[in-house]
Design a protein that fits this description.
This protein is α/β, with parallel strands linked by helices. The chain has 9 helices and 12 strands. The protein has a single domain, classed as Divalent-metal-dependent TIM barrel enzymes (TIM Barrel), CATH 3.20.20.150.
Length: 281
């Protein structure tokens, strides 16, 4: 197991996902945002427009790194070239931490555009824990792993997703990024209780929460991260703060990206839930 620990630095409050459409606004207005999350896969090139602006924004704000390319649940070997580029990027920008998803995204060298769920079995716990440990030892620190939205389940699964997460986090000695929107989407799609999921997660391992929007397709919910946060997700977020405390939270908006002022409104609402919690204490 890895014994490395993250350095929290100035990591607090509600951050916002960094998107190229907002580079100019952020640099011109210097909005009151405690930190931004950068999608590492957008910055793996040598030089160019994205790295130029990331350097400028990093000069004024702490950042976290979030990836989609490790395929932690896959069976292909960990991509060492990808990992080398990630290490170089980390060395250059010194983010607070790095996170990726507890899923698989590639097989036999072919990459999917989707974050694909894993079966929840003891063999899968062992497999993904070994791969997380490989990544952590390479980076020299703990990483955060995130729950994904899902639309199918495996008949071989013999435990819940939350139980699976708890076992992986313990065995790999990693941390957890708990996506509240993804929990709600999966709960509706599979018919489980989202509150039971929250309560089953290992609280001491949770270092960040995510908020985003979904699309209602009638007979299922589609996780697009392309709308404002829906009311049921806000309600679940309030319960998460009660369960876990005031965990740093990220507001994500990945498609149909609006004006930055809309994200600031969503951030303000998230902070209101912190204020409500403080008032009850």
């Amino acid at each position: 197991m890895s014994a490395f620990k993250i350095n929290p630095k100035d990591y607090h409050g509600v951050g916002i996902g960094l998107r190229s459409a907002h580079y100019q606004t952020i640099l011109a207005d210097r909005p009151d945002v405690p930190w931004f999350e950068a999608l590492t896969d957008n910055y793996m090139n040598d030089g160019g427009y994205p790295l130029h602006y990331l350097e400028k924004i990093r000069a004024h704000y702490p950042i976290t790194f979030h990836g989609v390319g490790l395929s932690l649940g896959g069976v292909d070997p960990i991509d060492l070239t990808y990992l080398k580029r990630l290490k170089a990027l980390r060395s250059q920008f010194q983010p607070i931490h790095f996170s990726d998803h507890l899923c698989w995204t590639s097989h036999d060298g072919r990459h999917s555009n989707d974050l694909l769920p894993m079966p929840y079995t003891q063999d899968a716990v062992r497999h993904v824990s070994e791969r997380i440990d490989q990544v952590q030892n390479s980076l020299g620190e703990q990483i955060l792993v995130e729950n994904v939205s899902s639309y199918l389940s495996y008949t071989m699964s013999d435990r819940t997703e939350a139980e699976f997460f708890a076992e992986v986090a313990q065995q790999a000695d990693c941390l957890i990024l708990c996506d509240i929107n993804n929990i709600y989407v999966s709960a509706k799609n599979h018919g489980f209780d989202a509150l039971d999921y929250l309560k089953a997660m290992p609280k001491a391992r949770i270092r960040e929460l995510h908020l985003a929007g979904y699309e209602d397709q009638g007979d299922y919910l589609l996780d697009t991260h392309g709308e404002a946060v829906h009311e049921p997700v806000w309600g679940l977020y309030e319960r998460a703060l009660e369960e876990y405390g005031e965990i740093p939270t990220l507001l994500e908006w990945d498609t149909n990206i609006p004006d930055f002022s809309v994200l600031m409104q969503e951030q303000s609402r998230a902070l209101n839930y912190w204020t409500k919690k403080q008032a009850r204490v």
